[in-house]
Specification:
Blueprint lengths: L4 H18 L2 H29 L1 H25 L3 H9 L7 H13 L3 H32 L4 H18 L25 H28 L3 H10 L2 H11 L2
């Protein structure tokens, strides 16, 4: 849970921090959009390395690199660095390892021969993911508005490094690495149905990304900046409930 919480914190924290420092939600939204685009490009490669070399060997350095990017963003904002440095720093956070996917891989290794239990475990994981996207934005908004603008990002960095370290320390449940196979598919995008699915998720990502920034900007304009994160978090509540209901079937 600790390792996943930063996923719901970083973008909200970055938006509030940049908007508070530079007075522009347009700049904040552009920076976070760049980070999301970088994540879309980097995440598949990170996941492939995790499968090939193991979770512990890849997730820890990947988390450390992402933490450095987040800290660089804080430094650039605090020191009033040029706008382009914000884009470069936030793009470095694209290496954040997907703790949820790694947890699902562990369930797959443990329950591979039991489809019913695996179904329940995956539904639980979905609900846990949504809890993180409910709590993360609210926590980030409270920290950034009640303490100081950089508080959300700094807390997210601490949770990311600590959470990934604790998660990967559980060696007993870590799946075995799967070296590259010469007979396996080389390019996932060439698999039937992948391209349409990618297009749908890209459009969905645009909707959610836009909704997040506009929600925070509207709440701030209405004089309730701290409530913006709570509203963003509540958007995940329906998915959390759906995951629990679906898993109980």
């Amino acid at each position: 849970l600790l390792a996943r919480l930063p996923a719901g914190m970083f973008s909200v924290s970055a938006v509030l921090m940049i908007a508070a420092s530079r007075g522009s939600y347009a700049l904040a939204g552009a920076v976070t959009a760049t980070g999301l685009a970088a994540t879309a490009l980097v995440a598949p490669w990170t996941a492939r390395l995790v499968d090939r070399y193991g979770q512990r060997r890849v997730a820890r350095p990947a988390a450390a690199l992402a933490a450095c990017g987040a800290l660089a963003l804080v430094a650039c904002v605090h020191l009033g660095a040029p706008a382009w440095t914000l884009f470069a720093a936030y793009a470095a956070t694209a290496t954040v390892p997907n703790a949820g996917a790694m947890a699902r891989a562990r369930w797959q290794a443990l329950l591979g021969e039991d489809p019913a239990r695996r179904h329940t475990a995956n539904s639980l994981e979905q609900a846990v993911d949504e809890v993180c996207f409910m709590v993360g934005p609210a926590l980030a908004a409270v920290l950034c508005t009640s303490l100081f603008p950089e508080a959300g990002t700094l807390t997210g960095v601490a949770l990311l490094v600590g959470g990934i370290t604790l998660f990967t320390a559980q060696r007993a449940t870590e799946p075995r690495p799967h070296p590259r196979s010469a007979t396996g598919p080389a390019v996932p995008l060439r698999q039937p149905g992948t391209a349409p699915l990618l297009a749908v998720f890209l459009a969905t990502g645009v909707v959610f990304g836009t909704l997040e920034v506009t929600t925070l900007a509207f709440a701030d304009a209405a004089g309730h900046a701290a409530a913006g994160g709570l509203i963003v978090g509540l958007q995940a509540a329906g998915s959390c409930v759906a995951g629990l209901v679906y898993g109980a079937r």
